Amino acid sequence: MKKLQYNSPVILSFFLVSLLALALGFLTKDWVTWHLFSVYRAPLTDPLTYVRFFGHVLGHADVNHFLGNMLLLLVIGPPLEEKYGSLTLLAGIVLTALISGALQFVFFPGTALLGASGIVFMLIMLASLSGMKEGKIPLTLVLVALLYLGQEVYSILFVQNNVANFMHIVGGACGTSFGFLAAKQRLKF
Predict the structure, then answer these.
(1) What is the C-alpha to C-alpha distance for residues 106 and 11, in angstroms, rounded to an integer?
(2) What is the model's pTM?
(3) How far is CA 5 from CA 9, 98, 104, 116, 130, in A?
(4) What is the DSSP code string of the chain?
(5) 8 Å CB contact between 60 and 71
(6) Which residues lie below 8 Å from residue 39, measured CB to CB, with a gap of 6+?
(7) What does the pLDDT look like over 46-77, one tens digit per residue?
(8) Burial of 35 (0-12, 13-18, 19+ CB in 10 A)
(9) Which among 45, 70, 48, 75 is positioned nearest to 57, based on CA atoms?
């Protein structure tokens, strides 16, 4: 009999903590979701403000929101964790969470942000850089960026919904920057 392998510790842990956050939100009628797993303008004297800068990527509004993000995370994340390493991928997730949380806090004071879609878009853009050779830009990056950015800009301009399209773009920019930085570091060795 074969044993289960915890093959992608960062991605699987992210999934499990997000699932726990969803369950706690349900059990507390969204109190935990609002106070720990959503970022919004709050006093800087509130210690939970700093927790929310990072924790918002673990919170989800409902099961559908959770499944939409986690299915992509679980498909895209493990190969990237294998390629870049667990600590490197964790650093990318933490930085993307902090950047998107801080931008939400500063530029969108009247709304709250939660969910892993910025992380998922960071992973999508990072994946599009796979196989990058020195001095060359992968065509996959160009196509994904055009289609992805086009869709997000269209949604910002013409679709009225509760989707944080700007933060998707921020996540994608983080993934692209992170991919180029990681490639540059690999090429030095």
Answers:
(1) 28
(2) 0.89
(3) 10, 30, 37, 24, 25
(4) -PPP----HHHHHHHHHHHHHHHHHHHTTTHHHHHHS-B----TTSHHHHHHHHHGGG--SSHHHHHHHHHHHHHHHHHHHHHH-HHHHHHHHHHHHHHHHHHHHHH-TT--B-SSHHHHHHHHHHHTTTTPPTT---HHHHHHHHHHHHHHHHHHHH--SS--HHHHHHHHHHHHHHHHHHHHHHHH-
(5) no
(6) 52, 53, 55, 56, 101, 104, 105, 112, 113, 114
(7) 999 999 999 999 999 999 999 999 999 999 99
(8) middle
(9) 70
Whether the Cβ atoms of residue 166 and residue 121 lie closer than 8 Å to each other: no
Task: Encode pLDDT of 6-51 as tens digits.
Answer: 999 999 999 999 999 999 999 999 999 999 999 999 999 999 999 9
Give the whole-angstrom CA distance, residue 115 versus residue 163. 10
Six token digits for residue 111 = 């709304």
The pair of structure tokens assigned to 114 is 């939660």
Q: Are 77 and 123 in contact (CB under 8 A)?
A: yes
> In terms of residues, how long is the chain?
189
8-state DSSP, 6: -
